[in-house]
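Suppose you are handed a protein chain with no further information: no name, no annotation, nothing but its sequence. What can you learn? This example shows the usual starting point.
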Amino acid sequence: MDAAQERRVRAVLALGGMPQADLPDGVQQVRLRLLERAASGREAPRDVSAWAAVVASNLAMDWHRAKRRQERLGERLAALRQPAEHPSGEDSSVLSVAVAQGLDELPDAQRQVVVLRFYADLPVRSIAEQLGVPEGTVKSRLHTAVRALRARLHEDEVV
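A reasonable first move is to predict its three-dimensional structure. Written in structure tokens, the prediction is:
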């Protein structure tokens, strides 16, 4: 991966909700998967940048799933413990915080296509190919996710 691809992978991981401290590990995981793919004899992805963005998005989804499992376990072990507050960051604008919170509330599949389409700037066709789903599925997920985000922003009176 070149520097531009690494920046894109870091952005996809961060927008997917992975904490800043875990981003270097996420980038390494993407590199490792690319090396594993080459070592297994499979041909290189046609578009390495798009492939890396999709792998990063999948890693971010895995991180969210693991986080949810840990949270549920923590709740069971300490029923009285309050969930930790997530700081919004003093330099973040109200809109970016609201969008980030809205992304966190989306189902994994919808969050993934939103991040890949609008933040990784992948075309619908490329997203569909990389995820192995029809273009119509990607479009449907995007439509539903954008509608939910728009409603959330209006509900919170951000826009």
